[in-house]
Amino acid sequence: MDEQQRQRNLEKIQRMCLMDDVFFNVCLDDSPECVELILQIVMDEPELKVQSVTTQRTITNLNYHGVRFDVMATAKGKVYDIEVQRADEGAIPQRARYNSYMIGVRELHSGKKYNELPESYVIFITAHDVIGDGLPIYHIDRVIRETGRAFADGDHIIYVNGENRDNTALGRLMQDFFCKEPNKMYYNTLAKRARYFKEDEIGVSKLSEITQQLIDEGEMKGKISMIIKMLRAKQTLDFIAQMSDFTIEKIKEIAKQNDIAIIE
Fold it and tell me: What is d(CA 224, CA 138) in angstroms, rounded to the nearest whole number?
């Protein structure tokens, strides 16, 4: 990474907040105290204690769409999936439903009985009021329509409205999620973690490397997408290699992966 690119990355880091997927995952990675604080406030359970935390956990489904969880945590035998979403379309009800389903897939190991499935919570922290009823938080559970009684399947979905930044515990948490300056954050646990990745030399270097890695991965995806388009347009391998700086062997591999006929 040259000095100019490094400086651009540093500027990006200073503009980041916890609502940014990269910063959220980096800050909460290996930081159970931050996850614990968030869950205590969202769940309104001050005594909640977190047993384990994993970030960027991908669950694959061989036949269908896989899913990548931002933060997965366990507490008192319950499973929590915490997601941050700036874009409304990233937090549609169907996605919450699918995340809930994939948690079940993850937890129901071979030999387990259905009644051994743990209670699970899919929590979306959204930039806007996705539900649209002007509430700071929404709890979604299945009920029996005819009686109004809870259908106790153990699946719960929660939407936290990021537009609510009042002086309640939850509102202050949302203030912190959108705050770019650690010294102005309300909760010291989150501020300390954010400060490490924005001001500490080691933390800044680590986040800068992750940021550059994501940039490189994005550029690579863009190049591969361009190659696929050229292959489908029946361009020759020599022409594609010249335009993309990829080797002919690599282009053939991309063609094979995407089931595209090659024009020599």
Answer: 41
